Amino acid sequence: MANVGTAASLHLRPSAERVAPIKVVAWHERSRGQRPGSQDGLNAAEANGQAVVMEAVPKYRFDRMVADALDDLPEELLHVLDNVVVQIQDRHPDDPTLLGLYDGVPHTERTGQEGPDVVSIYRLALCDMCEDLDDLEDEVFVTVIHEVAHAAGIDDDRLHELGWG
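Below the sequence we write its predicted structure tokens.
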């Protein structure tokens, strides 16, 4: 579980450069077609015409990966976790390729009357797109940052600019 605040000083640049955040929409999803560094959402083997299927990681191990990703969030993002519930599900019921989903009111728009935001991370969709455990750990980290950043008030365009698309 996690918590959230404002995005006034939030910086998610994977490099040393710091960039100011931009406002986000109230609902967001991250799906296979948005995989950073990929060709049309495909992993390297798929882009070369090879089908690579990683066996699904057991739930307990995937839960640990998500917990580790939350522990490794940038310090500027930690205050955002005050009012966020992070849940892990096998798949989104309407879009089985969805990797993550943010549902809530970004903290830059909160009035104090809202309930907790919800970040969903989809285990089987993430396993489906990864070649191995290292790839999965990286993808889980990117997906967690991506969804929590939406709770902080950062939109997709800005996340793509910062390398967290």
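The chain has a mean pLDDT of 75.
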